[in-house]
Design goal:
By secondary structure, this protein is mainly α. The chain has eleven helices and eight strands. A hairpin with a 6-residue loop joins strand 7 and strand 8. It is globular, with a radius of gyration of 21 Å.
Length: 313
């Protein structure tokens, strides 16, 4: 199993170190109807960080799941309540997209993040946004509930927290302005902020073409920090980034550092193996993965980003 380290902020980050664990009551299951005849090994006491109770299978906590729960998930025999909830979510998100929004669309949106250099928190925030599972004000009830936004004094819904709140609206508008030249370089019409583009990660035009990979990365990073700032303001804790300009600058720096990290990882793999696992050359790999956002020199050593340093200049 992969080992994780905890930073001073309390976030978990995967490392390259792995450790061995002994599983109790391991029950191997043969996955039916697969071409590769894979085996699914279910261990009732182990799972992925941060904690097993944060993950659910068919509405049941992963730390309480047994082999039969995974078997039901593989056979897609969802309970009626779960099917109705997913149907309601798809109908709701379908009102913001021109193309039909189905459970397959939701599954594809989740799988896109697996190939991006994302942290666990960014994957988690995006997944919870798709399921409308964040504890926004409209989900709070009781005498201590705070259903209004602290800034706008409006009902705090998912769309308000991630899109319409002044800080979130400023971030999305500034990020699209910051990347306007990249959209044009890739022969795409620079879009405007929308729920489909910013919250879901779908092309607003409704065409089947997926969003550029670089925007998927930028969108998920922005979602995480917008929610962190909104939650800190909602619950009255000390805010890390109290003004929109500082928050925007941090998101831009995070985005640039992830692309540089991914580039260094590729170069390390490309130069330190006798037989390269990637048939592409550095310039081809960079264009295939990150489009017009980044370019390298003819030797494939120096990386340069085709973006302005900051949006505030």
């Amino acid at each position: 199993m992969r080992q994780w380290v905890q930073d001073p902020e309390g976030y978990l980050t995967p490392t390259h170190t792995h450790s061995a664990h002994v599983f109790d009551r391991v029950q191997p299951l043969v996955v039916d109807r697969t071409r590769s005849h894979k085996l699914l090994v279910v261990g009732p006491s182990e799972g992925a960080p941060p904690q097993l109770k944060h993950f659910k299978v068919l509405g049941k906590g992963l730390h309480k799941c047994e082999a039969k729960h995974f078997y039901k998930a593989l056979r897609k025999k969802f309970p009626k309540s779960q099917r109705l909830k997913l149907q309601e979510l798809c109908e709701y998100w379908g009102t913001f997209t021109k193309a039909p929004f189905t459970t397959l669309t939701m599954a594809k949106l989740k799988s896109m993040g697996s190939s991006l250099p994302l942290m666990q928190q960014e994957v988690w925030v995006h997944t919870k946004a798709l399921h409308k599972a964040h504890m926004v004000g409209s989900h709070q009830h009781g005498p201590t509930a705070q259903q209004q936004c602290e800034v706008c004094q409006e009902l705090d819904t998912h769309e308000h927290a991630f899109m319409h709140c002044p800080m979130a609206a400023f971030v999305w508008h500034s990020l699209l302005t910051w990347t306007e030249s990249i959209w044009a370089a890739e022969k795409l019409t620079p879009p405007k902020p929308s729920v489909a583009l910013c919250m879901l990660g779908l092309m607003p035009s409704g065409t089947p073409r997926t969003l550029p990979r670089w925007w998927q990365l930028l969108q998920r990073i922005a979602l995480r920090w917008i929610w962190v700032t909104h939650a800190q303001r909602l619950y009255g804790t000390d805010m890390m980034y109290s003004d929109p300009t500082t928050l925007l600058s941090h998101i831009q720096q995070e985005f640039e550092s992830r692309i540089k990290w991914d580039w260094n990882r590729f170069r390390h793999t490309h130069t330190h193996t006798h037989i390269s696992t990637t048939p592409m050359r550095p310039r081809e790999w960079l264009k295939h993965n990150w489009g017009q956002v980044a370019k390298c020199d003819t030797q494939g050593k120096e990386l340069s980003l085709e973006l302005s340093p900051t949006e505030t200049e």
